[in-house]
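Justification of resources, computational component.

The compute hours requested in this renewal are based largely on the per-chain cost of generating structure records like the one below. Each record pairs the submitted sequence with a full structure-token output. That output is archived, and it is also reused by downstream analysis tasks.
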Amino acid sequence: MVIQSLPLNPQWEAQQLPDALPHGQGVKALQEVLRRAGARPVDRQQWLQQRREGWLGKLTELCHTIEHNWLAPMVAEGQLQINPLKVALNEQLIGSYEAPGLLIEIGTSVVRLEPKGTMVIGAAGRVDLQGPGGLATLILNSQDFPQKPFPACQFNWQFVARSPRIQLIPLNADSFADALLQVAGLITD
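The structure output for this chain reads:
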């Protein structure tokens, strides 16, 4: 049986239990895994602080890439306008904080790139792109998270497509432009 590392102790590695451990030996198996892992309590506050700071850093990078790389030519041409947005969040464990977002104006359409939080199930964070044409959800994903500390993980942003089945679409300039057109109500499926 393989035991995965606990999310709140990113230094533990997955442990392989011997098959010789009999069923019904839960406490003994737990003691053996903890002994092998050299388990020690994690400084929970430090771990949560690293997660919040890492999340805010990833949001800042995302906003910068969208505003200064992908949409900058359209802003220069006067085709759209971008304004920074501060979103007040209050998450269990992490507390209250302000997170960066964007307000994108295209003609009469206003689209919000709005962070929803880092304490979400199945990802290291969620951001919604919302406008008159609907909603597109971005998640911050990593193969390493939460087994490794937030700063040590390699992350990528992905859109979550929900129909007909859940599909993850990598975020890049083209996928962002497609989503922006759709949520701004400028095109339909």
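Residues 1-17 have pLDDT under 50 and may be disordered. The chain has four helices and nine strands.
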